Amino acid sequence: MRTLKTLILGTTTALVLMMAPAANAQTSEELRLMQTFLDIMTDYLEIIESTHEIADDPEKAAILQMQKIQEVYEERGEKARSVAVLEDVLKSSSNITIRNAAYIMLGDTLKETGRADEALKYLRQGLDENIKAAK
Per CATH, which fold does 59-134 belong to? Predict the structure, then answer.
């Protein structure tokens, strides 16, 4: 979804390129390259906007940070170490959105590290919390 800001920046970029000497491209290859550049710039602006949107929302930022912590541990071959981080999140947060993400991530991590019984325990605990909250 493009916002007005992204649309304005994309349009401005296109106009600048059209006024540049390369805009007088003579071959279809040159035109294709210019279009590719415009597409990349538009995608880049959308990524920046999405990043800002996530960073501006504490719930989204916390969930992204939990995912990134898992990634780092996984890249180091220490995926099981993220379990303690996610357990700490459950101990310290009362936010249902953050807790749900932690339960799901914790369940996946425990299952993937051969601790399926613990995964089921945490997933069941999260389910119980949600059922109580839905009443």
Answer: 1.25.40
